[in-house]
Design brief:
41% helix; DNA polymerase, domain 1; binds magnesium ion; alpha/beta; single chain; 7-stranded mixed sheet; Rossmann fold; 9 helices; binds xylulose-1,5-bisphosphate; 2 domains
């Protein structure tokens, strides 16, 4: 089947938001709430085992801070902390400190020019997607994506495939007509379970994850003059990820 759409994960794939965006935002929210919790880079790497900010806070308390006495209204408490974290995250994005990863803007622009359909498929909160896109690609850039599938739209977050199925249903597309872009183990488990071909760009937190099911694993999307490194799969002599290479991967030329 013909390739009709690119489905992009956000955190770690479009930008390195986890270490310098989400993590400090969680810490700011903890401090503002008078909590002495601090998620350093190494602990945060372990907490990334669980997707979703509210889910991550609960996972932290169950596994790393079992001393904490939960308040009676625990779910509301977590919701409040997370809402505060989202505000801090939006502020960090507005300061423009987190750039898109190499090649992301170029590929999105090429897709727009060639009228390739695009969607966002993420577990992060919708407001975070808006904040990242508007502060990097511009005020109207969210509208370039036909669907923004994000946050609590489906109850079962990645690694469950639900969010990909939801996005494809909205777009009236079959998995064979799409390519997914991910950066992590939870991400690829989700996309593969949704029967999607998947291209991975690794990052510091995910470089040792299992990507054996990926169709292509790269260190970055690359730019003209800034070649990617192919870590798994076939680069077909290309030096950066563009629609021509994505089409080859999609057709599975190597099979
Ligand atoms: C990233 C996540 C999110 C963020 C935090 O998923 O797991 O939970 O770390 O965002 P993806 P929230 O790579 O699929 O975008 O606090 O808004 O959940
Ligand atoms: Mg990700």
């Amino acid at each position: 089947m013909e390739l009709k759409a690119l489905l992009f994960d956000v955190d770690g794939t479009l930008a390195d938001t986890e270490k310098d965006g989400h993590r400090p935002a969680f810490n700011m929210a903890f401090e503002a709430a008078g909590l002495d919790w601090n998620w350093d880079e190494s602990l945060y790497g372990e907490l990334l085992a669980v997707t979703g900010g509210k889910e991550r806070i609960k996972y932290y308390l169950e596994n790393f801070n079992t001393q904490f006495v939960k308040p009676d209204n625990f779910d509301e408490f977590v919701k409040g902390l997370h809402a505060s974290k989202t505000e801090f995250y939006k502020q960090l994005m507005a300061e423009g400190k987190i750039p898109l990863r190499p090649g992301v803007e170029r590929l999105i622009n090429e897709a727009r020019q060639k009228e390739m359909r695009m969607a966002i498929v993420t577990t992060t909160t919708p407001a975070n997607v808006t904040a990242l896109l508007t502060n990097t690609l511009g005020a109207d850039s969210e509208s370039w994506f036909e669907v923004v599938a994000a946050g609590d739209i489906v109850p079962a977050k990645k690694p469950a495939p639900d969010i990909y199925f939801w996005a494809m249903e909205q777009m009236n597309l079959q998995p064979e007509e799409c390519m997914a872009f991910e950066d992590s183990s939870n991400g690829i488990q989700s996309s593969i379970a949704a029967n999607l071909k998947t291209i991975i760009t690794i990052n510091g937190y995910t470089k040792d994850d299992d990507f054996s099911q990926a169709d292509l694993v790269l260190d970055q999307m690359g730019e003209p003059g800034q070649a990617f490194q192919v870590l798994q799969g076939e680069g077909f002599g290309h030096h950066y990820l563009d629609l021509a290479l994505i089409a080859k991967i999609h057709k599975g030329f190597h099979q």
